[in-house]
């Protein structure tokens, strides 16, 4: 319904933008012509889109980054400063209409990762990133419908509903709310009514709570079904709906508890989340993804709901420096009303990377360890604002006020042995010396991709060169990254760490911390983490030639498993039987690795009983160590 768009870089002031020249652009999007601009105006014209039986039109702009002002037919009709929540404006169109939208770069600390040089300039262009549309309606109609579920247990739950009603004529009616199962599962439906009263031309908000008896709960994949419900609101023939799900998530002593059941948390940081990233994470055996200092479009959460993948949501706040708590509370409120309907929303964090203790890499020698101790000892950070802001987030999900480096007592630690400091073999020392705890928000190392290195956003070439002898050797670079991430992930699993996420799934530039390139091409580290994240997997504590290493099998599933573990190391090979209870681990013995071994391969073959009572192989997973 909207016409051709034009855009122009502008100087922001109090009035409607009026540049000398407009350039044709594609909207939605991030026009490359405006890279580096602080403010960009977008303009389009459109005819009255209403059919004869519709009286109102609703403009929706989605992904307005970061601060926006919107003019319709020369009238300033709204401002907006939460790019992840749509801007909506109801109006009566003229025969011909002009729409002008001015988007400005972040003017506060809440641009998140998009306000840092970890993102290429094209990702930071102020604009209408995700959608621009107009819908038409008869009156009265429901212009917005938000829901926030509150799961109590498997016998009783509740869903808070907020509906915005717009009407041309006075109304004194009842709105009908209904709850129906989505898909093929059987569950008890509900129907409630709420009073609606409004004068002619008014916009009113109706709130209601739906009590859900005997709810069918949503579970992470591998732990149960992903049941979801459709919440429908009907008023005078107009109907709209929202999909949601019911589950309870809390932080247990040694894991996340979803509906009271233990769910090990292992996965990836996403820097620019897409629905395709959800599938990539699931394919790599992740149970959780962390949305690193940004919020995504709804399609990402919808994909996570369907896949049964937990989502750890950051506020868009990262890097050193103070911030406005009141502004953060506004952002948190918008986050909740936008995403809290999704059962996959599992945790929140507030301030990411508030200090930078390691601008350059430290080695592993005695003096470098002294330097690391000195830096971490002198590090300081005022936790008060982050903790105050954390209180604005719901207490029915785990909340981590501070995510950051060891040395500042973070609630979720960022550890980078083998990248920021030391070698990957320093992992146990870091975890023990700094009492990291059971939540690790970040770990990893950078690596080259297959293409030319022209865009270095998110890639520290100095740290890379300090660990990879030939910094231009893609194979050596990716092999090093794979070793770092797999050894840290294995160490965390052997320590029964409750929640940990590698940084990151995909690069933002031509190289980076991603275990995939920005286009989704796998680096060596992707398969290494896929193996390390296998729910049932065998690990060696010390996979080095000449060492005698414990062989441990971990079962992170809710079911007992039986099978055989096989190994090959040089001329040595063998196997042993295993039988593990749900959520357990067992050391099966030790292996003495030959001095001349250049690699070690483990394989776990899982068996189950068939209808005839015979044990047959169900599946096999491997774990390879390159020396």
From TrEMBL:
UniProt GO molecular function: hydrolase activity, acting on glycosyl bonds
UniProtKB keywords: Glycosidase, Hydrolase
InterPro entries, alphabetized: Beta-gal/glucu_dom_sf, Galactose-bd-like_sf, GH, GH2_Domain-Containing, Ig-like_fold
Keyword match Lyase: no
Region annotation (Disordered) ranges: 1-28
SUPFAM superfamilies tied to this protein: (Trans)glycosidases, beta-Galactosidase/glucuronidase domain, Galactose-binding domain-like
Name of protein: Hydrolase
Source organism: Halorientalis brevis
């Amino acid at each position: 319904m909207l016409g051709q768009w034009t855009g122009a870089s502008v100087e922001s002031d109090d009035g409607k933008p009026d540049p000398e020249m407009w350039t044709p652009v594609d909207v939605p999007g991030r026009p490359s012509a405006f890279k580096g601009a602080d403010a960009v105006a977008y303009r389009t014209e459109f005819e009255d889109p209403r059919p004869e039986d519709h009286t109102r039109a609703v403009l929706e702009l989605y992904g307005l980054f970061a601060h926006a002002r919107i003019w319709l037919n020369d009238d300033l009709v709204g401002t907006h400063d939460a790019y992840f929540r749509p801007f909506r404006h109801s109006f009566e169109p003229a025969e011909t209409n002009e729409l002008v939208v001015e988007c400005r770069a972040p003017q506060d600390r809440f641009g998140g990762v998009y306000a840092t040089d970890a993102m290429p300039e094209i990702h930071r262009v102020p604009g209408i990133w995700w959608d621009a549309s107009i819908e038409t309606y008869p009156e009265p109609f429901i212009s917005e419908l938000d829901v926030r579920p509150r799961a109590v247990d498997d016998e009783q739950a509740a869903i808070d509903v907020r509906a915005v009603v717009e009407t041309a004529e006075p109304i004194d009616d009842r709105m009908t709310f209904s709850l129906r199962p989505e898909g093929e599962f059987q569950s008890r439906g509900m129907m409630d009514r709420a009073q609606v009263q409004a004068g002619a031309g008014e916009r009113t908000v109706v709130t209601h709570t739906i009590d859900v008896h005997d709810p069918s709960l949503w579970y992470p994949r591998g732990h149960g079904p992903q049941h979801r419900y459709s919440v429908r609101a009907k008023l005078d023939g107009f109907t709209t709906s929202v999909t949601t799900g019911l589950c309870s998530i809390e932080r247990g002593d040694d894991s996340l508890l979803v509906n009271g059941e233990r769910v090990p948390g292992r996965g990836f940081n996403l820097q620019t989340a897409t629905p395709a990233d959800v599938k990539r994470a699931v394919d790599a055996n992740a149970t959780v993804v962390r949305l690193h200092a940004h919020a995504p479009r709804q399609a990402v959460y919808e994909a996570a709901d369907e896949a049964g993948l937990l989502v750890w949501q950051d506020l868009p706040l990262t890097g050193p420096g103070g911030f406005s708590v009141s502004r953060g509370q506004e952002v948190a409120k918008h986050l909740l009303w936008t995403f809290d309907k999704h059962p996959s929303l599992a945790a929140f964090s507030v301030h990411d990377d508030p200090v930078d203790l390691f601008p350059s890499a430290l080695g592993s020698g005695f003096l470098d360890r002294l330097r690391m101790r000195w830096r971490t000892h002198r590090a300081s950070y005022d936790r008060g604002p982050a903790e105050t802001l954390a209180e604005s987030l719901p207490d029915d999900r785990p909340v981590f006020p501070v995510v950051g480096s060891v040395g500042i007592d973070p609630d979720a630690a960022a550890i980078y042995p083998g990248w920021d400091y030391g070698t990957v073999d320093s992992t146990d020392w870091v975890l023990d010396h700094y009492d990291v705890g059971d939540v690790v928000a970040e770990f990893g190392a950078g690596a080259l991709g297959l293409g030319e290195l022209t865009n270095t956003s998110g890639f520290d070439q100095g740290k890379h060169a300090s660990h990879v002898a030939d910094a231009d050797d893609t194979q050596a670079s990716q092999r090093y990254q794979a070793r770092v991430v797999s050894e840290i992930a294995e160490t965390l699993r052997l320590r029964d760490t409750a929640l940990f996420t590698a940084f990151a799934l995909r690069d933002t530039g031509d190289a980076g911390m991603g275990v995939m390139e920005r286009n989704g091409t796998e680096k060596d580290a992707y398969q290494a983490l896929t193996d390390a994240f296998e729910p049932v997997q065998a690990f060696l504590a010390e996979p080095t030639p000449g060492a005698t290493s414990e062989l441990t099998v971990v079962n992170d599933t809710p079911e007992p498993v039986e099978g055989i573990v096989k190994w090959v190391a040089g001329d040595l090979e063998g196997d042993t039987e295993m039988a593990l209870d749900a959520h357990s681990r067992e050391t099966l013995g030790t292996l003495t690795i030959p001095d001349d071994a250049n690699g070690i391969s483990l394989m776990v073959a899982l068996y189950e009983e068939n209808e005839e009572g015979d044990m047959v192989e169900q599946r096999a997973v491997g774990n390879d160590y390159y020396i």
